[in-house]
Amino acid sequence: MSTTPYDEGDPVYALHRGGKLETVSTAPLRNRDDLSLAYTPGVARVCTTIAENPDTVWDLTWKSHVVAVVTDGSAVLGLGDIGPAAALPVMEGKAVLFKEFGGIDAVPICLDARTVEDIVETVVRLAPAFGGINLEDISAPRCFEVERLLQERLDIPVFHDDQHGTAVVVLAALRNAALLTGRTLGDLRAVVSGAGAAGVAVTTILREAGIGDITVADRGGVLHEGRENLTSVKSRLASETNEGGHTGSLVQALRGADVFIGVSGGSVPEEAIAAMAADSIVFALANPHPEVHPDVAGRYARVVATGRSDYPNQINNVLAFPGIFRGALAVRASSVTEGMKLAAAEALAAVVADELSEDLVVPSPFDPRVAPAVAAAVSAAARRDGVARL
Questions:
Q1: Which of 70, 80, 337, 352 sits in a 20 to 30 Å window from 114, CA-based?
Q2: CA 65/CA 50 separation, integer angstroms
Q3: Residue 85, CB half-sphere, CA atoms under 13 Å: how many?
Q4: Does residue 72 contact residue 111 with C-beta atoms inside 8 Å?
Q5: Is residue 68 helix, strand or coil?
Q6: CATH architecture of 14-156
Q7: Each residue's pLDDT tens digit, 183-208
Q8: Sequence ranges of the domains in the chain
Q9: How far apart are CA 343 and CA 208, in angstroms?
Q10: pTM (2 decimals)?
């Protein structure tokens, strides 16, 4: 009888046995001559060249096409703070997605580090081996500070996917949903449920893109300037949003709203969706259990999107991060700018702009047009923003 604490016949566990990654050599090692080129003595010449001309590291090592996928395991999927070891299967999966959809090699790095300072210092010391840093599943509000400090200290792209990947795909989908319903972003009043990493980033990018009005709510209700005991992040959001002066609950804010964007994992009653404006747009993105079931939302909303693959309009970060890093690395960008994120969203929306329907406002993750389109737009934006080195 097996003593393994999981069902070895379950195909999920079977796929994960031994992990989902391996390293493969690109250098032949057939004989002594090959060995002398790939390792000593030949490698010493390469090391000396890099020491004397640091930029050659991009040409003579894997740096130009490899990303570190970094987590502390504090906010993994919907599982919460499960720690770095339990986060490793997700980081391996992220690396697989980087390779499959963006042609980028990625290395999962799970840190036994709990403070902002420890995470930042560790990543800074690891960074010379990588062309970019993808932060993943780090809890808010620490994630904001980790990203900010790393951007200040490193000259390679730092991208927190839970924030910005989600935001890019939401903006792309909302652009197309607005177009489908005969409106622009500027015509829309949106309500965001959740003021964590994704909620903050979604709100920020929608404001930059010209959303008509946007209100954010957390468990305590709508963020507004008169509300007490807000964190510094939420206080800033309250001062920059909610032009309509809404107070009270999320349900109250949804009355007459054009757009609901859920990134909180909470629940929204059916009557709140029913009270939204005509031709409403509902993005219920909590996974695996959306804030409102898509079948229920579909009774009232013109366009419904979720984070799930078994319903139309999946808002999936894999539509964004492979192309963003591919574009950034192609021009050796020193950072990921707001302009690059906006360009990524515009390119992503354009992929299906001529094919729009209620069930298609964002491409499938398997659409081969996605990563090349996003990468080209990101590279061009990096040059415009002055962060490209090629």
A1: 337
A2: 17
A3: 0
A4: yes
A5: strand
A6: 3-Layer(aba) Sandwich (3.40)
A7: 999 999 999 999 988 999 999 999 99
A8: 14-156, 163-390
A9: 12
A10: 0.93
